[in-house]
Amino acid sequence: MSASKVYFTNFRATFTENLLQKLARLVKKAGMLEQIDFKNQYTAIKIHFGEPGNLAYLRPNYSKVIVDLIKEQGGKVFLTDCNTLYVGGRKNALDHLDSAYTNGYNPFTTGCHLLIADGLKGTDDILVPIDGEYVKEAKIGRAIMDADIFISLSHFKGHESTGFGGALKNIGMGCGSRAGKLEMHNATSPFVLTDKCIGCGACKRNCAHDAISIAEKKASIAPDKCAGCGRCIGVCPVDAVANHCDESNDILNKKIAEYSLAVLKDRPHFHISLVVDVSPYCDCHAENDAAIIPNVGMFASFDPVALDMACADAVNRQPAIPGCILDEREHCHHDHFTDIHPETNWKVALEHAEKLGIGTMEYELIEI
């Protein structure tokens, strides 16, 4: 496979061109409008709205640039994300939208509607057959799979389980329904926090596999019967059902690549990553630690694998910001992400995605 083109521009602005105008010029130069016919096509822009309390997520202004460009081409565009597996501000569609609005994402600031792709409780998904090494049927949020065109707009940052979170993480993990996220994160079934459980039976009533029983006003889950659908997590009124998050980081990365394949195959797609406010942890945290490097710029490509590789290389060429967690760590791995999270290997996801035919780690960087 020949090297993929990745387009890049820095965060310098001029009196005649601000950063939003520069982003528009970047995606035009990368060929998004020339190579994709948006007219009357439902277009999903996958983005992370940010967990309440976290301030490292992308500002909604960036998304409006992409929305406006697509609308000018006659596209039917919406911003989207799926509900989280963990308990937080985005665990169901109502809380998720509240969180998005709190962080500035709404139809007035973005120019389009926001859809939570896997529905009210994270159970509205489509099974996408891929016959991967670890995933046979990916569970993807229905609204994402109903779209004709897929665009990812990612905040590139560190991640405690995958090394970094970029395009593949935004696509694979982000587009998984609650059941999909459960499959990626876990090697075992959910379990009940008995100190929280009130024995209401909501989980049992919503279990289609008779895996849940109630005894002495406490629920329990039989691992041999559990199908991993995650409905019990979504319906519990007191957040008493939890998951182990016990999958190995390498397999987690490979599952993310396989889920990315399910999202991208058989339809047009394009990808944008902003290397800005590069926090050491995921935007799913309700806080963000200080950025680890100076802001780098904006990247765009039709190839999410090459895009992630280009962003990782760009980050690793930067010095650590004094006083951040990277500055405090021993630099023994010659890799910023591994220095912060030494138990991770981010290249696993990229190598597996390349093996799956999603893209290539070889890239030609074109600066505008």
TrEMBL record:
Iron as UniProt keyword: yes
SUPFAM superfamilies with a match to the protein in the record: 4Fe-4S ferredoxins
Annotated Pfam families: DUF362, Fer4_7
GO MF annotations, alphabetized: 4 iron, 4 sulfur cluster binding; metal ion binding
Residue stretches making up the 4Fe-4S ferredoxin-type domain: 188-217, 218-247
Protein name, entry field: Ferredoxin
Gene3D superfamilies: 3.30.70.20
Function recorded in the entry: Ferredoxins are iron-sulfur proteins that transfer electrons in a wide variety of metabolic reactions.
